């Protein structure tokens, strides 16, 4: 004869059962919630509370508690209730004072920005609380980022021209981003590098011997990301014109060439203009001044600098050029294009917001 009070039947819908199974099998949520889901699933299968408690190594009171909680509140009842916790010691007024001082004032000692400890001493809030509020609100007074607005009077026209080539390239044409990375230095470290190991990073001496420089000319194919690159000893219109001839030979004769370049003087030299005038398939597109971010080949320069040049040690310029050629060859084997997604209007809207923020400042 069964003993104890009769228990209400526990039945699950298909949706509830699938959710509980998902919770019971999860490895990313809390172990307590997983155990509660297993209790409910076992109870729904008709297993007695005592058997569930013995199998899961729980007390019968715990099993009964979560079984009853589920009957009353369903799945939401398995989650812990919000606990009140300790009352706040920093009210909204003091928090607003902290935010205002951080954003709109400077320390009286002449420092350029607040630190956690200086603002804590100023507002009589503990450094731990200041750090917590800074992290919560995304305030980072110790950091800064650089920017430069273009002063080109035809900025909008040039922006729409270049972005239009990225988003809607012309048919029967090849769009190339061309630029030079000048002063690539062949630096030889005075001591061997300390190899990376467990618990410490690669070590590089701060001093070096200069063995000369080279200029890297590169043309990035916007369609597939392939790069045509060559190193030349100097950075003049003669070298630029020579590189244009290399591009002209590499591009099939039936395709037009749309070339995106910056406003460097060698790109506008009379001899370069004469060479372009004799070849009607060539079309030059100049980015606005102070807008190198518009030229996608700059992204390739960042990659080759970070992965092949900056941390290298080269005993001669020839050795540096070999390293560059090796990197470019391997890069082209698995190259991928840089996908441009921003429209000209979205860029102009962002610049409008930036100008609105900096207008009326003390500068």
From TrEMBL:
Record-given protein name: ISRSO5-transposase protein
Pfam families: DDE_3, HTH_32
Annotated PANTHER family: MECHANOSENSITIVE CHANNEL MSCK (PTHR30347:SF1), POTASSIUM CHANNEL RELATED (PTHR30347)
Organism: Paraburkholderia phymatum (strain DSM 17167 / CIP 108236 / LMG 21445 / STM815) (Burkholderia phymatum)
Domain of life from the UniProt record: Bacteria
UniProt cross-references to InterPro entries, sorted A to Z: Homeodomain-like_sf, MscS-like_channel, RNaseH-like_sf, RNaseH_sf, Tc1-like_DDE_dom, Transpos_IS630-like
MF-aspect GO terms: nucleic acid binding
Domain Tc1-like transposase DDE: 175-321
Coiled-coil region(s): none
């Amino acid at each position: 004869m069964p003993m104890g009070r009769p228990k209400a039947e526990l039945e699950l819908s298909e949706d509830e059962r699938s959710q509980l199974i998902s919770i019971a099998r999860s490895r990313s949520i809390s172990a307590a919630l997983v155990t509660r889901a297993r209790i409910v699933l076992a109870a729904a299968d008709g297993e007695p509370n005592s058997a569930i408690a013995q199998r899961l190594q729980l007390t019968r009171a715990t099993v009964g508690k979560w079984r009853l909680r589920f009957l009353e509140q369903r799945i939401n009842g398995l989650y812990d209730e919000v606990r009140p916790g300790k009352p706040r010691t920093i009210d909204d007024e003091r928090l607003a004072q902290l935010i205002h001082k951080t954003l709109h004032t400077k320390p009286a000692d002449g420092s350029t920005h607040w630190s956690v400890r200086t603002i804590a001493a100023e507002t009589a809030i503990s450094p731990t609380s200041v750090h917590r509020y800074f992290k919560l609100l995304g305030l980072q007074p110790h950091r800064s980022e650089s920017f430069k607005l273009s002063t080109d009077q035809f900025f909008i026209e040039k922006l729409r021209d270049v972005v239009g080539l990225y988003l809607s390239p012309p048919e029967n044409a090849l769009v190339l981003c061309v630029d030079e990375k000048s002063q690539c230095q062949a630096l030889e470290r005075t001591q061997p590098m300390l190899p990376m190991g467990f618990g410490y990073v690669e070590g590089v001496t701060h001093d070096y011997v200069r063995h000369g420089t080279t200029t890297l000319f590169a043309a990035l194919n916007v369609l597939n990301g392939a790069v045509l690159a060559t190193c030349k000893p100097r950075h003049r219109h003669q070298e630029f014109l020579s590189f244009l001839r290399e591009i002209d030979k590499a591009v099939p004769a039936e395709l037009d060439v749309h070339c995106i370049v910056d406003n460097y003087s060698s790109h506008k030299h009379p001899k370069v203009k004469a060479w372009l005038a004799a070849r009607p398939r060539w079309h030059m597109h100049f980015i606005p001044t102070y807008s190198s971010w518009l030229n996608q080949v700059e992204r390739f320069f960042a990659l080759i600098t970070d992965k092949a040049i900056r941390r290298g040690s080269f005993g001669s310029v020839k050795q540096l050029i070999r390293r560059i050629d090796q990197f470019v060859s391997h890069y082209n084997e698995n190259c991928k294009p840089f996908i441009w997604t921003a429209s000209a209007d979205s860029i102009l809207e962002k610049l409008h917001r930036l100008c609105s923020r900096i207008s009326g400042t003390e500068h």
